[in-house]
Amino acid sequence: MREAVPARKGAAHDSVSDLVDDLLAGNKRAAAKLISLIEDDEPEATDALARIFPHTGRAHVVGFTGPPGVGKSSLINRLVRKYRSRDRKVGVVAVDPTSPYTGGAVLGDRIRMADTGVDPGVFIRSMATRGHAGGLALATFDAVRVLDALGMDIVFVETVGAGQSEVEIATRAHTTVVVEMPMTGDAVQTMKAGILEIGDVYVVNKADLGNEDVLVANLKFQLTARDGWIPSVIRTAATEGRGIDELADALDRHAAYLDQTGFRAKREVARARLEILENAQRLLSRRVANRSRMGRAFDALAEDVAARRLDPHAAARKLLWPTRPREK
Ligand SMILES: Nc1nc2c(ncn2[C@@H]2O[C@H](COP(=O)(O)OP(=O)(O)OP(=O)(O)O)[C@@H](O)[C@H]2O)c(=O)[nH]1
Ligand SMILES: [Mg+2]
Fold first, then answer.
1. Atom nearest to 209 CA in ligand 1
2. Whole-angstrom Cα distance, residue 137 to residue 64?
3. Which residues surround ligand 2, an ion (CB under 5 A)?
4. What pTM was estimated for this model as a whole?
5. Where does the chain show beta strands of DSSP type E?
6. 194-247: per-residue pLDDT in tens?
7. Cα 69 to ligand 1 centroid, rounded to whole Å
8. 175: CB partners within 8 A, 6+ apart
9. Distance of CA 292 to the CA centre of its chain
10. Which among 302, 209, 279, 313 has a CA at the least distance from the CA of 50?
11. Nearest to 82 by CA among 252, 319, 230
């Protein structure tokens, strides 16, 4: 048993470094394997991410958010082709919806987004959201880092417009694209609170359905500068390929703006803060989980609490810091 440990470690070590070498050489299979390790929260993923980290930071990371069915995947599909025609390498990380009853929709998504998958300059991957201990955002942006290290020039991240994901994406991407579609009536009122503050580029998709002028005008009227940048408002019809050139131009303009003004570096620092905290929380929760599995010490604490000898807060402190019971 004791001999098996270093042998296993050695093997894992070699395979991780091979995987990282392959990734840095532009091997898409290595990227797929690494993302699976991240998805499964395997310890090798942490090792691999540490090794690839110095080789990241080059890709322009663009987050897409917006209500379900608004056309995010369709737009990304078009953009992938557009950027390939501009000779840029493109990565896509799509976050699947968690709802168990959307299996069909997820499959449809994969099929639509996969038709560019044979090109070596394109890498598209859906991430499962179920049960990742480090939180979805952490896993997603670790996958983005893999695609960055793979040599992709631009990486699109598609999230579902639910919960905290819009805000999360805006704090992590270099450029945030908010996708909306025209509706009858006062469309702006149906937009989620806070959505006007997070976008760098607003897309009014499904312009082919008409009535888009009201939404465009409302957006232009309400949007204010973010980091000195007045958000662009672009009309598109993803299914027809309309407005895709303008959208790609807006993304490139925003990337150039961030570079020239130093805001890209500032956003990197803001993201680093979040990632440090998230990783710290993850380490801590792992530590808690390990301690609670330690058996007798944990049982004793539980008995002390049940018998009112110790309150749960003090017991938690003891669990985390057995030798420093007073520490908060
Ligand atoms: N008429 C019209 N339909 C569109 C347009 N863009 C997308 N669609 C359709 O809208 C539906 C949803 O498109 P998706 O690209 O899957 O939308 P999504 O935002 O990625 O959806 P989720 O990932 O499920 O949130 C599909 O049936 C598309 O064909 C458009 O510009 N015009
Ligand atoms: Mg989609």
1. 1
2. 13
3. 72-73, 109
4. 0.84
5. 60-65, 90-95, 122-127, 154-158, 175-180, 201-204, 232-235
6. 788 889 999 999 999 988 898 899 899 989 898 899 999 999 999 999 999 999
7. 5
8. 60, 61, 62, 63, 200, 201, 251, 254, 255, 258
9. 30
10. 279
11. 252
